[in-house]
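Fig. S4 source data, part A: sequence.
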Amino acid sequence: MKGKISVTEHALAAIVGLAAHEVPGVAGMSPVGIRDGISRILGRSEASQGVVVKADSANPGHYQSDIYVVVAYGVKVPTVVESIAERAEWAAEKLAGVKLDRITVHVVGVSRG
């Protein structure tokens, strides 16, 4: 392959966010910071909402991610969190070609459905 492919942190956050949405038991993503909050108030949502990705400066191609989710009432939270982390790691590696060294899933709420 010729050339270099780079994936921005924002694009990686979108990939991780979409992967998290696919997990059964995830009711939605929680806004992170004022930008996400304003976007939600204005009725705009982005695939990257609820996801923070930071590059590991010591290891190029390695990242850390925080994922903020709302889960559905009645699900086993540890099972859903584990599935989110596995799905995010898989998506980052297979779709973007990068490694998520640390994935922290924050359950910030529970929804009735």
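Fig. S4 source data, part B ends here. The helical segments are 9-21, 33-41, 77-96.
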